[in-house]
UniProtKB/TrEMBL annotation:
Coiled-coil annotated spans: none
InterPro entries: Ribosomal_Su5_D2-typ_SF (IPR020568), Ribsml_uS5_D2-typ_fold_subgr (IPR014721), RNase_P (IPR000100)
GO BP terms, alphabetized: tRNA processing
Keyword Hydrolase found: yes
Lineage, uppermost ranks: Bacteria, Pseudomonadati, Bacteroidota, Cytophagia, Cytophagales
Protein name per Swiss-Prot or TrEMBL: Ribonuclease P protein component
A Pfam family recorded for this sequence: Ribonuclease_P
Keywords of the record: Endonuclease, Hydrolase, Nuclease, RNA-binding, tRNA processing
UniProt-listed SUPFAM superfamilies: Ribosomal protein S5 domain 2-like
Gene3D superfamilies documented for this protein: 3.30.230.10
GO molecular function: ribonuclease P activity; tRNA binding
């Protein structure tokens, strides 16, 4: 582990903003060859989420956006279930794929979202599975 302030090269001369330079100088980073990786101070409070609606089934962008908005709203209202999980068991990324071929009402989407989030709560963390197999 190396502190950025220990580096001989000047960060400010690389064309970064002052705010980025200050953050870089305070952070701890790892160097591997030519790549530098700055790990986050703590895990993110909630996972990053992707909502996907097929262009094949919904040709009009208006329809895809309507479905995506409904899915996002259902997730927003029920994401507190994920926030209650310990950081070790919380997933980092979640992708929700809308597989129906017709536009469904918000009530149906909300019910499906609740069920999906309950299933996510019951899943064991992936890294614990890998460690138990070794």
């Amino acid at each position: 582990m190396v502190r950025a302030s220990d580096c001989a090269t000047s960060v400010s001369s690389a064309g970064f903003s002052k705010k980025a330079v200050r953050r870089f100088k305070r952070s701890t980073f790892f160097r591997s060859g030519c790549c530098t990786c700055t790990p986050p101070k703590c895990p993110p409070p909630l996972p990053q989420v992707l909502f996907s609606v097929s262009k094949r089934h919904f040709k009009k962008a208006v329809d895809r956006n309507l479905i995506r908005r409904r899915c996002r709203e259902a997730y927003r209202l029920h994401k507190s279930a994920l926030a209650a999980l310990p950081a070790e068991t919380r997933p980092s990324y979640i992708a929700f794929l809308y597989l129906a071929k017709e536009i469904t009402s918000y009530d149906v989407i909300e019910t499906a979202m609740k069920q999906s989030l309950k299933k996510l709560e019951k899943l064991p963390p992936a890294f614990l599975k890998e460690q138990s197999n070794s």
